[in-house]
Task: structure prediction
Amino acid sequence: MKSSTLVRAGFGVLILLSIVSTPASSQDTESKTKPKKAVQNLIPARPENFRVGLRGAMAHFSGDVQTGGEVFDGAENPFTPGGDLFFGYRLPPFSDVAHFGFKGLIGYRRLIARHPQYEFVNIMFPMSVSIYTELFPLAFLRPYGSVGVSFLPYSLSVRRNEVPSNVRVEFAGNESSSTIGFPLRVGIVYSINRAIDIEVTFEKELTLSDRMDGIVSSRNDNLETFGVGFLYYFYDAETADTDGDGITDKDEEELGFDIRNNDQDDDGLTDGDEIFFYKTDPKNPDSDGDGLSDYDEVAEYNTDPMDTDSEGDGLSDFDEIKVYNTNPLSWDTDRDGMTDLFEIREGADPNNPDSDGDGVRDGDDQCPKVPETYNNYQDKDGCPDEKPSIVDNPDIDKIVVMQNLEFELGSAEYLTVDSESIIRAYEALKAAPELKIEISGHTDSTGDYQSNLDLSLERARTIRDLLIRKGISADRIVAKGYGPDRPIAPNDTEEGRARNRRIQFKILIGN
Result:
């Protein structure tokens, strides 16, 4: 078989094996509705880093005898057996797609360049170091490729040279020498178990010499090699972590996990992170059952994947994110002083601090769904209303004159602070914020005139202070004392004097 045919066949086999080894998730893209998310593993992996191997090899030259020409008619470079001893160091996988490593090799080759008129044999001991990348490191069947540099000591022997002297071709003689090469490899690795792999490989090695096949020309003598071998990993069941998720293979087997899968529930979080950091269930993509995946809660929303209501406001994380578009980490998304739950129950918008747009934030708005009517009447409560008329207010009519308010004898101390009369006066003033009044105190004619005048003023001030303490503005109330000057009944009877001892309200401003 021609060497070029062998090369094409070898590459075809490798491409076919690569397709077969591709995980189902990359073959069936239409059935995969949610791509795998890459999440940094927070726990350092402990894979089986070191490995050694033996490989049987079939190699030949790909140099001068393949260029054609009269002297090369009938020439061949047959594949001849050899072998390799190699060792490697595998770096921890950085993703489910690929990982890297280093490989060293010491080999033996016995190569032949043969023609009816000549034969050369070359014994070689190649030594190389390479860097390689292996795809799908968690799969059983894994394609890989590598590039490297090699040192090639060789011993060339002339077995026969009967070429006529008039042929203008330069032949090498018996010699021992060395050169530099650059091996390029592709291959497939199949795992038999956790410690042993089988490897099939094809190697093309470019060299800097043109003397190794015995024929000297301007074309360098490159090498092609097919090999089959096995790899042994230094596997320790107590510490090995095949999938690099931070959980040893021994523990994963006890948990019933697949030791080659670092994400049992395929939620985007490694099993080690779920167990040791997030305290989630590595076999359940939604540990708290709130409709959000553990990955989304951790990586996108910063919510607690083990709590359906992360901030405890009565709304589930799912409802806040997917239904109401509120912040699952805040009781009050729009910061209006009203919790999201209360706003939703009241029909207000939890994402708008002023749902009805009336200028009163929902937390202060007694009617958050309907706007305030601005009419200088209770304009801060957020509710629509009509301004009442003072003339039509029965409470205002009733508080114009108040009698039978009880004071200590000869004192301004009011005995009944929460009497019905004071409460009615307060409610009327609160209902009509534009109202201003005068509170006047009156006495009978018994006793000293000046003392009665002073006492009536103090009693009027007492009632004024009571209303101010209840929330009525001081500038709306004027207190005056008239003593016995404005009687409403004769002072010569007990009944008349009782009627004259009174508190009177007078409307100063109003409609």
